[in-house]
Amino acid sequence: MNDDIEIIMSPLCQSFKKDGISLQVEIYRSRESDWTLEVVNPGNTSIVWDAMFISDEAALEEFHRTVRAEGIQSFLDNHDNGAA
Q1: What is the model's pTM?
Q2: 60 lies in a domain?
Q3: Taking the CB of residue 21, how many other CB atoms lie within 10 A of it?
Q4: Is residue 2 a part of any domain in this protein?
Q5: Which stretches within the chain are classed as H helix?
Q6: Three-state DSSP class for 21?
Q7: What is the residue-averaged pLDDT of the chain?
Q8: Number of domains in the chain
Q9: Within 13 Å, how many C-alpha atoms sit on residue 74's CB side?
Q10: What Rg, from alpha-carbon coordinates, does the chain have?
Q11: Distances in Å between the alpha carbon of 31 and those of 3, 4, 34, 36, 55?
């Protein structure tokens, strides 16, 4: 029995930079699930949304909405200045 789960990466995965802070936006799913949104900050901390998204476009829009509403600094670790 093969327990390996195939992960499908969205073509919308991208590096995002604003105000000198670089983030890696990862959007992925398995064949049987909706899309997961994960953001990796300069300190290599992974922030994963609890909610799943019906499309990769919806996941990316949620990322941009969060940046607009909370600011890019909201993704940083307390000790991280974000310089990259």
Answers
A1: 0.86
A2: yes
A3: 20
A4: no
A5: 56-70
A6: strand
A7: 92
A8: 1
A9: 10
A10: 14
A11: 13, 12, 8, 12, 13
